[in-house]
């Protein structure tokens, strides 16, 4: 009996010493930002203490992952999306309804317009993670006003030939610059861009944009024959002085990048048009997820006060918090993004003219 008891005690001790296998959560998120990647490495360490292995699958283009999910060939448990990618997944009935099951949603900023995503009703299929606001970052003195009009951008290009550019659409920063120019060129018709593109006279509405770009492109870096491939590349050109302006979707980038030594002190932040195109970026769980409950636990953590504060730190990522505690934070004056259907239309028409 004593021998049997000793063996039982030994087995209990051995099994107690063996760590339980961590639950793996495959998170598909953009991998093109050092700040985002560093933040997710921190989150991975934090979640390990909860027995969760967060696996950051770095994405260059979220639309590729969306296609895989719709086709049934993805192991994604969480995807970082918004806009046309959310629209495609919703249309394919490829997302779980999760917002009502996430306790942290009780702490979301009530002023945050998260229930629609590029004009599409969210219907609890995704939860807000952060706030994006399109802005320009410029060398000091390039623009006299904080709000840059289409005309003042054109004048700056005339006065500084070859030192202004923008990312090549369909890179989303480049496409958003086109949207911002549309809003600047149609200051009294903003509501029309909240409608699906096929329900309005898009050709007539965009004609001023193409005429404007025909004037702008010959004045740009490399005469508009080539464009930076990304916002990150444009930031590098701003840092080394090739360009005088860069684009960003993070309203804190002008501070964060200086703090990190990636841009010189004194750079300025501007809106293109009088308000900044603003949208939320979201987390969603595909219907095909193999681990939806643990995926929701990851989302609870990413929406926690601790995780949101670290994300908003301008010495780290600087992405604005979505929580009530962020009320009063310094954001740019917002305007809604265009309906999701404008994205593909603008990219197609731009490519037909300038590729």
Name the descriptors.
4-stranded mixed sheet, 12 strands, globular, 355 residues, alpha/beta, 12 helices, 16% strand
Structural commentary:
It is a single chain. The termini are far apart. α3 (62-71) packs parallel to α4 and α6 (172-185) crosses α7 (202-216). This protein has 355 residues and is of the alpha/beta class. β4 and β5 form a beta hairpin. The model is unreliable at 10-19 (pLDDT under 50). Strands 1, 2, 3, 6, 11 and 12 form a six-stranded mixed sheet that branches. A four-stranded mixed sheet has the order 8-10-7-9. The protein has a two-stranded antiparallel ribbon with strand order 4-5. The protein has twelve helices and twelve strands.
Mind telling me the C-alpha Rg? 23 Å
Strand proportion, as a percent range, falls in 15-25%
N- to C-terminal distance: 84 Å
- Compute the number of strand runs: 12
Outline type = globular
Q: What structural class do the secondary elements suggest?
A: alpha/beta
Q: Helix count?
A: 12
């Amino acid at each position: 009996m004593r021998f049997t008891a000793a063996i039982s005690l030994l087995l209990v001790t051995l099994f107690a010493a063996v760590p339980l296998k961590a639950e793996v959560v495959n998170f598909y998120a953009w991998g093109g930002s050092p700040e985002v990647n560093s933040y997710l490495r921190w989150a991975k360490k934090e979640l390990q203490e909860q027995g969760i292995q967060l696996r950051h699958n770095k994405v260059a283009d979220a639309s590729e992952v969306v296609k895989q999910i719709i086709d049934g060939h993805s192991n994604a448990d969480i995807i970082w999306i918004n806009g046309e990618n959310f629209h495609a997944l919703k249309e394919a009935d490829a997302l779980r309804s999760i917002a009502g099951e996430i306790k942290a949603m009780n702490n979301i900023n009530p002023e945050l317009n998260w229930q629609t995503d590029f004009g599409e009703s969210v219907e609890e299929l995704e939860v807000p993670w952060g706030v994006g606001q399109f802005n320009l970052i410029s060398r000091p003195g390039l623009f006299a006003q904080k709000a840059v009009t289409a005309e003042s951008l054109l004048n700056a290009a005339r006065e500084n030939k070859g030192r202004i550019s923008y990312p090549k659409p369909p890179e989303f920063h480049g496409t958003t610059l086109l949207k911002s120019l549309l809003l600047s060129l149609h200051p009294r018709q903003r509501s029309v861009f909240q409608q699906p593109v096929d329900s309005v006279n898009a050709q007539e509405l965009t004609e001023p944009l193409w005429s404007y770009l025909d004037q702008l492109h010959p004045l740009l870096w490399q005469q508009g024959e080539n464009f930076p491939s990304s916002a990150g590349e444009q930031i590098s050109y701003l840092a080394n002085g090739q360009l005088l302006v860069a684009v960003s979707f993070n309203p804190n980038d002008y501070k964060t990048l200086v703090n990190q030594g990636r841009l010189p002190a004194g750079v300025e932040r501007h809106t293109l048009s009088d308000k900044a195109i603003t949208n939320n970026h979201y987390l969603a769980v595909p219907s095909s997820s193999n681990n939806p409950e643990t995926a929701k636990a990851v989302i609870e953590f990413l929406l926690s006060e601790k995780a949101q504060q670290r994300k908003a730190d301008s010495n780290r990522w600087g992405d604005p918090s979505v929580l009530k505690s962020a009320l009063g934070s310094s954001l740019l004056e917002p305007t809604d993004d265009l309906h999701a259907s404008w994205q593909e239309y603008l990219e197609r028409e731009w490519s037909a003219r300038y590729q």
